[in-house]
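queue> pop job 88
queue> type: inverse folding (structure -> sequence)
queue> payload:
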């Protein structure tokens, strides 16, 4: 119960990494504000958290909407009066097409959710954290925030942008008690990879798996455990860092 009486907000909790992260924070004793654009998946996650003994505040939120993000953070402050941890995780894969073939509409959508959305979350979380003694923010980026990937230009650009944004916020707020880090998972078995056709096609799955020296894809639990550790006081001297949780993908 390391996080007893502390409060975490997690975005994108309707499935995958976000759901597992909400569960991990709750198991450490934190009260959790959980949010997603998908009401049904959000409700299911709230059900999974029943019996953990912590208070759960589900708020339907589109992270690309300033109004909705503002409402999420003000609901957290109204309910709990504090914000200690934020895990900005909501994101989409976007269409698969080369840089010249990519549509403007899809580009805007991916950047709006994966980069602008993460910035909006921090924009409202930081003042809330400063009301008390600070906090810790973990932005879920990707290995594709550190290396390129053909046919994912908007996703790669958004995730590289998020890594730079996290470093910048760390420079600005670490002295005031807010640590800001990015976390960069390798390929993790979640619905996102099903939607991208990676886990549904055995040949593609093998090709992607072979890029991970560890010989398999990651699990949401492995990413959630790293997020919780990076948020905790055990990581108290770590800020402005990008933590790779990638089975060695970027070690080649
Ligand atoms: P997922 O598809 O299972 O979960 C993403 C969640 O974000 C969903 O619940 C979805 O409803 C929500 N979401 C989408 N748009 C939203 C919006 N506008 N507002 C609020 N919520 C929204 O995918 P997964 O894999 O759990 O992804 C979580 C994060 O991890 C994403 O940022 C993704 O880019 C990142 N990531 C995933 C990797 C993977 O291989 N699965 C690898 C590296 C990073």
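queue> result:
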């Amino acid at each position: 119960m390391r996080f007893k009486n502390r409060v975490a907000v997690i975005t994108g909790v309707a499935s995958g990494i976000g759901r597992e992260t909400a569960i991990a924070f709750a198991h450490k004793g934190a009260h959790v504000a959980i949010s997603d654009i998908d009401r049904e998946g959000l409700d299911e996650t709230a059900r999974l958290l029943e019996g953990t003994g912590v208070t759960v505040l589900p708020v339907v939120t589109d992270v690309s909407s300033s109004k909705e993000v503002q409402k999420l953070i003000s609901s957290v402050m109204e309910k709990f009066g504090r914000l200690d941890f934020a895990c900005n995780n909501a994101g989409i894969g976007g269409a698969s097409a080369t840089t010249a073939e990519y549509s403007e509409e899809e580009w805007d959508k991916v950047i709006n959710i994966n980069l602008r959305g993460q910035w909006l979350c921090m924009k409202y979380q930081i003042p809330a954290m400063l009301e008390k003694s600070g906090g810790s923010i973990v932005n879920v980026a990707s290995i594709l925030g550190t290396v390129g990937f053909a046919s994912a230009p908007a996703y790669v650009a958004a995730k590289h942008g998020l890594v730079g944004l996290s470093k910048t916020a760390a420079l600005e707020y670490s002295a005031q008690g807010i640590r800001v880090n990015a976390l960069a998972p390798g390929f993790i078995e979640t619905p996102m990879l099903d939607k991208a056709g990676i886990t549904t096609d055995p040949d593609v799955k093998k090709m992607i798996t072979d890029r991970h020296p560890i010989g398999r894809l990651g699990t949401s639990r492995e990413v959630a455990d790293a997020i919780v550790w990076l948020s905790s006081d055990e990581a108290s001297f770590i800020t402005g860092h990008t933590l790779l949780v990638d089975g060695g993908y970027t070690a080649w």
